[in-house]
Each structure stands twice: as C-alpha cells, then as structure tokens.
Amino acid sequence: xxxxxxxxxxxxxxxxxxxxxxxxxxxxxxxxxxxxxxxxxxxxxxxxxxxxxxxxxxxxxxxxxxxxxxxxxxxxxxxxxxxxxxxxxxxxxxxxxxxxxxxxxxxxxxxxxxxxxxxxxxxxxxxxxxxxxxxxxxxxxxxxxxxxxxxxxxxxxxxxxxxxxxxxxxxxxxxxxxxxxxxxxxxxxxxxxxxxxxxxxxxxxxxxxxxxxxxxxxxxxxxxxxxxxxxxxxxxxxxxxxxxxxxxxxxxxxxxxxxxxxxxxxxxxxxx
Length: 272
What we know:
Elements: H1 5-14, E1 22-25, H2 31-42, E2 46-50, H3 55-69, E3 73-76, H4 83-93, E4 98-101, H5 116-144, E5 147-152, H6 165-185, E6 190-197, H7 203-216, H8 220-231, H9 240-251, E7 262-265
Parallel strand pairs: 1-2, 1-4, 2-3, 4-5, 5-6, 6-7
Helix pairs in contact: 1-9, 2-9, 4-5, 5-6, 7-8
C-alpha cells in the first residue's frame, strides 16, 4: 500500500461528515494552508481563509472553493502578529468547530547574524498566534462539546537544523502547546494534535532552495533534489493533499481518542 492510501481510506469514510462545521485555517491563501482548507471544504466544512496576497487572486480562490464544494467560504485579512485581530477573526467566524493553526514565515541565518526583528516576527506568527487563536476558540468548543485544534508544526518541531533558530524554537513550542491544550480539554469533546510535515514544496521552501542555489552557484532543480535527499529517506516531497487528508481524519469521530500527540508526515526524516 502506497504512502497516503491509508489516509485516503479513512478520509473517504468521513467525507461530508464535517457538514455545518466551521473551520478557520490561518495562513491559508497558499501552500499547506490552502490545501488543508480545500480538504476540509471537500469534507463539507464551511471554511474561513486567512492570509496575505493579491486581493483579486484571493477572491478567485474563495469563490472557487465555495463553488466547487458547495460550502460557505469567507476570507479574513487578520494579521497573525496582532492578538486583537486574531480575536476578531475567531469571534467573527461564529461557533468555531475546527481551528487549524498554520500561519508561518521563515528566515535562515546563523544565530550571530540573525536579525532580532526577524526572530520577533517568526515567534509572533509561528508560535504566539497559535496561542492567541486557541485562547479565543477553545472556550466555545468546550461549551459545545466538540472541537478540533490542529497545529501545523514541522519536522523542525521535533528535530533541529542549523541556521533556523527562530523557526525551530517556535515549532518546538507549538508541539508543547499542543500537549497542554490536549490536557486542558481532555474529556470535553475537544482534541488537539500537531501535524509535523517534512519538506513540502511551498513558497517558503522554494525561497530556501533559491537561496542555496545562489550561494552554491547551482540550479534550482539541483538544489531541490539535494535538499529533499538530505532529510527524506524516500527522497520525495510531502504533498499538501496528504496533510489535508490527515487533518480531515483528525476532525472525525474515528480520531476522538487521538489527542496531545504529534503525527509526522516526513518521508522518514525523524525516524533516522
């Protein structure tokens, strides 16, 4: 059985079972977040998109999700560095059933050269935003007796790589927050888990590959193959659809006892 087939089986069993659920996915105008939003919409959930980008392009994405999956799809440009705006997106969505904390940025540099403002921004968006959104969503979930909080962490929430001090620190913190949230919601119909992907060919990763190619005087394709081969024993990038499928499964009844844990989708990276 190929990677992803088991998730597909479970996902198909839960399709449309999320009908009438409301899901917020932060950082979802592209990459992993958009893939997760599409998967949740396919499963019947009404979705709230969030992120930055060209307004016309975002509107096309919003319209296409609503039309393709027959769900309500809205958009918020809330800045994930600002707690008041995070509170507004949660309260504006209504009764939030599913919260996917995905928003993230990256900067790569040695610690001694790492700009303090980049550290602060990464911690704010990758780490603190997950706390603030959880804070404002979790009380309602407890009251209604159902909730799914899914933190998109990273393989870097479990292991480290050089020149990624802020990102690694933030993602480790998100895994820790996941555990605390699970303990505080246990037995109340609410679960919290972290998904830890390996390399996904998102814009963030493409930027890293381009930087490596420039520094090494090589091509983008050469560095792409080298990058994934350094970490993934299977030498393949993770697909956003795999992350989306796992998210849908974790939102279903068959995952109600899965909480407080991290689940890796990393081609064997953290098994080494």
